[in-house]
Amino acid sequence: MKVGSFIPEQSASTLYAMAGDDCSLHHDLSNLTPKQQVDHQENQVLTCALQVALVGLGKASDYVALGAPFTDPAWREMLGHYSEMFVTMGLDSVPDSQWQFHPLDGYYESVAASLPEVDLTNLYMISGSNEPLHQNAAALAVSRNVNSKLHFAEHAPAAGLPVPRTEVYSKRAIREGEADRLFAELLNGVMVKLLGLAGSRNVFAVDSVTDCLDQIGEYADDVQILLQEKLDISQWREMTVDLTITPQDISISNVRQILFAGGKWVGNYISPELEVPEAHKAVLMQVGAYARDHGHVAEEGINCGIDYFISGEEVIVTEINARWTGGLFPAEFLRRLGVTQPAVAFFDMVPVAQRQAVRAFQREHLFPASGNAFSYVPMGFTPFAMEIEGTERYFVWQIVVGDFAAFVEAKRQALTEDAFPTADLILQEALS
User: Fold this and answer.
1) Which of 290, 345, 374, 377 lies 20 to 30 Å from 395, alpha-carbon distance?
2) What topology does CATH give the domain 165-229?
3) CA-CA distance, 207 to 385, in Å (whole number)?
4) Separation of first and last alpha carbons in the chain
5) Torsion of Cα atoms, 284 then 290 then 296 then 301, to 10°
6) Is the predicted pLDDT of residue 219 greater than 90, yes or no?
7) According to the model, what pLDDT value does residue 37 have?
8) What is the value of pTM for the model shown?
């Protein structure tokens, strides 16, 4: 069996096994700082939504390794609801007889002990935690290099890739004033980037040395901190693409615009109107060649995401993600469903008490929802009731196709005010 981060449209039978691998790429999970522990656990929770999405993106010959929390009767029923929606929309989907359930702690050891007879095991990325499956030190070294923000900062300029001004300091050096000049010269602010973690947990903006030191206070003095020029978003638009890389070819599988609200990532805008001009494509192909030259390649095809900014024909590449990306999932759902309308993919929260009402809302507006201003594409949910602002909630992951304002109005009519709060932010800020 081959093990790797293969592209989703594989014809071979596949076991999908993904459970919050980002942190273990660069860190020992038994020696995390308190904040890293919290961030890692939150990442494991959100990855459960990805596991549900893999049920919909898989096919009849595939298997999906899901977290044990899905076996709770209420969440198991919800999982069945999602599976039914996937089938109703016309997706091939992985049958429930081929769902596996594994504890989130020791997930990969459990998966390795019960491997089905398939041709491929598809990981989110090659990482430390999933070593029981890949057992490939060389592949792990490649993944650590190509997914490393520090490695990219060091090697990208020599490869001729356009990147923002970037300098790397130890925490001690920042405290001792060695980065003061950089902060003084970058008047638009500084992006701080750390190794490990996911979902922007290791990337944040600061406007002063003091702010930077406050944010990295729990880290050791010798930790390496990447400081990068913050681009003016009034002049630059942030985009991301997924590449498919093989030994013979590099191609763009999708392109998306990053949506921000309140200074934070809130989702992806995907539309046929988002084309990649030739001037941009030339740079993106160069980045793909860079990743392949550093060993990120597979005969079956391997995914590589690129985060970049555009202004006219100019392109600045901020980082690469040599793995599956969160945006790859909705782009693949839309491709398989044949969607040609603009769409917004995003995570949001709903109260546990509204669980049945949310299910009814999903069914009522389920894609293709003919004749409606919008339709709803479910992707996943998290099987955890978490108290947030005094109310038990769970996360849902979805795509709204068509008129997003109509979706917001419909959810306001059908659900309580605290359901889908991020959708309100997206409408008010990100799509304004």
Assistant:
1) 374
2) Dna Ligase; domain 1 (3.30.1490)
3) 36
4) 48
5) 40
6) no
7) 67
8) 0.92
